[in-house]
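Weekly structure sync, notes
Attendees: PL, DS, HV (note-taker this week)

Item 1: Fructose-1,6-bisphosphate aldolase, class II
DS walked through the input record. Source organism listed as Deinococcus malanensis. Sequence as pasted into the shared doc:
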Amino acid sequence: MLVTGNDILVPARAGKYGVGSFNTNNMEITQAIIHTAERLRSPVMVQMSEGAIKYGGQDLANIVIDLAERATVPVALHLDHGSSYESALKAIKMGFTSVMIDASHHQFAENIQETRRVVEAAHAMGISVEAELGRLGGIEEHIVVDEKDAFLTDPEEAVQFVEQTGTDYLAIAIGTSHGAYKGKGRPFIDHERIEKIEKLLSIPLVAHGSSGVPAEIVQRFRDCGGEIGDAFGIADEDLQRATQHGIAKVNVDTDLRLAMTVGVREILKNSPKEFDPRKIMGPAREVMSKIVEHKLGVLGSVGKA
Ligand SMILES: O=C(COP(=O)(O)O)N(O)CCCCO
Ligand code: NA
Ligand SMILES: [Zn+2]
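Item 1 (cont.): predicted structure, written out as tokens:
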């Protein structure tokens, strides 16, 4: 069933498990996410970035909404990294049941102002809101945040921010970053910081940049002609530990991008005569489903629906 973000994340925080929030850009990715969650009796969130909305529009949103409505587990449709009040409201009009307003690149006061506007409007329509305080490293789709500007979330500031905005859940910067290159080896996750924030805030916390970038997928990507450098993601045990300390929503995009591409590349490489779209996208859907299954296992959400 299609529900709001709060319907999924409040129980997750209380139950000390994480809920995967997976980015989608087409039907097969959406199916891999929702069908796997159903099979494993897991709540799940499907998210679309502004780039995905530009790419697939209401057509793609309707695929997600229809699968979510018919799903036998709770599913929310979430706007990822909404960059403005207008963008958040447009998403709600499209049928989204959770929206992020990412004003984390602004000064503290502006972030509060922008976030509060969205919270008031979204709450008036019964929609949940995610906001962000602190900056991840890596490339946030519309912002390049280089190392020196990336700063981790201050626990005391987070308390003020939540009190003054009313946001339902909060994305915190705790060492993760977007993309396939999260560190020179295992990225440093500031568990002390997470545990400080956990004690001060009772709302669900959000970890962005939570792809694991599994070595096996990276190797398969290279073996079928993909070019990728020294790719590292967040370690399963770091993610698992974070879900025991307040992290309830866990954003994953890169792993599904890599998985879909591996599926397609392997077919095109090994079956050069193949040009049936179902034979090309079907195996890619399988590779993605396995990635979703692994992630739900790490997050502890299996059987929670
Ligand atoms: O936090 C994430 C996902 O991060 P990751 O790149 O680790 O999958 N997102 O918000 C997805 C969009 C960012 C570009 O990938
Ligand atoms: Na988000
Ligand atoms: Zn993100």
